[in-house]
Amino acid sequence: MEITVERRESITIVSIAGSVDGLTSADLSAAFREELGGGRVRLIGDFAGVDYTSSAGLRALLETVKETRRRGGDLRLAAVRPEVLRVLELSGFTGILKLYADVQAAADSFPA
Amino acid sequence: MPETWEGAAEARNLAQVRAFVEDFCRRVGADPRASFDLKLAVDEACTNIVEHGYVGMPQGDMRVSIAFDGERLTVVISDHGRSFDPERIAPPDARMDCEEREPGGLGWHLIRSTVDGFRYESGAGEGNLLTLVKRARGSGKI
């Protein structure tokens, strides 16, 4: 799994490529936490390159979305592929996380 | 003939286990969704072993065997770590804080949601055996 972080004004885009599982989810959590630690609470997870996630990845998303919202921000997902969407749906996460077709749509969804 | 993967119960091996299941499913012509679901269920079961199975014990192994009878895929996952009863793990409530939820609860929820049948056995000396059954066809695309 590879992670790229891009900061655009008040929004941070965390782009992930590969599989998120019990090994790699710690890196994803760490990337999100680093942004939160810097006071950045508007996060977008660009999932265009993610072909798989297990519950380990979902836990990283859940802890992050709770912390961002507690601090007035949000974690929103962009370009989720069908495989990952299936895991999100099975877990009930589509009722928690906001999903967007692409990064631009997710970025536009944050209030100015 | 069943095929078997065996190795250390470590997170670095999870990708190998998934590839092993996926490759077998592809060779027997399983539907993409059946293949994905079984891969996810096996990964969740192995992740539980990695994270909880050998806590307080020396590092152990896990073993994954898979077979196909022309209709159903059967996976048997075995380990010699701590046993636990999956029936006692409540389905997760995603609104709850992570700390409040049962360890492995979300993983077990995904296993239950993706396979057509499962059985957990824990016998003295025999280790823990988790059997997962999944119909190979009829589920279509992901």
Describe the 3D structure:
The complex is a heterodimer of chains A (112) and B (142). Chain A has 4 helices and 5 strands. Chain A has helices at residues 25-37, 55-70, 82-90, 103-109; strands at residues 2-8, 11-20, 42-53, 74-78, 98-100. Chain A is globular and about 30 Å long. The model of chain A has no long low-confidence stretch (mean pLDDT 97). Chain B is built from 3 helices and 5 strands. In chain B, a hairpin with a 3-residue loop joins strand 4 and strand 5. With 142 residues, chain B is an alpha+beta fold. Chain B has a 5-stranded antiparallel β-sheet, with helices on one face. The chains are: A alpha/beta (112), B alpha+beta (142).
Features:
heterodimer; A: 112 residues; alpha/beta; five-stranded mixed sheet; 40% helix; B: 142 residues; alpha+beta; five-stranded antiparallel sheet; 3 helices; 5 strands; 27% strand
Concise description?
The complex is a heterodimer of chains A (112) and B (142). Chain A is an alpha/beta fold and 112 residues long.
Strand order of the largest sheet of chain A: 1-2-3-4-5
Largest Cβ-defined interface: A-B, 23 and 27 residues
Termini Cα gap of chain A = 32 Å
What global shape of chain A is seen?
globular
The total of helices of chain A stands at 4
Strand content of chain A: 25-35%
SS-based class of chain B: alpha+beta
Mean of pLDDT of chain B: 89
Distance between the termini of chain B: 27 Å
Biggest sheet features of chain B: 5 strands, antiparallel
Topology:
The complex is a heterodimer of chains A (112) and B (142).
Chain A lengths: L1 E7 L2 E10 L4 H13 L4 E12 L1 H16 L3 E5 L3 H9 L7 E3 L2 H7 L3
Parallel strand pairs in A: 2-3, 3-4, 4-5
Antiparallel strand pairs in A: 1-2
Helix pairs in contact in A: 1-2
Chain B lengths: L2 E6 L5 H14 L4 H22 L7 E8 L3 E8 L25 H10 L2 E7 L3 E9 L7
Antiparallel strand pairs in B: 1-2, 2-3, 3-5, 4-5
Helix pairs in contact in B: 1-2, 2-3
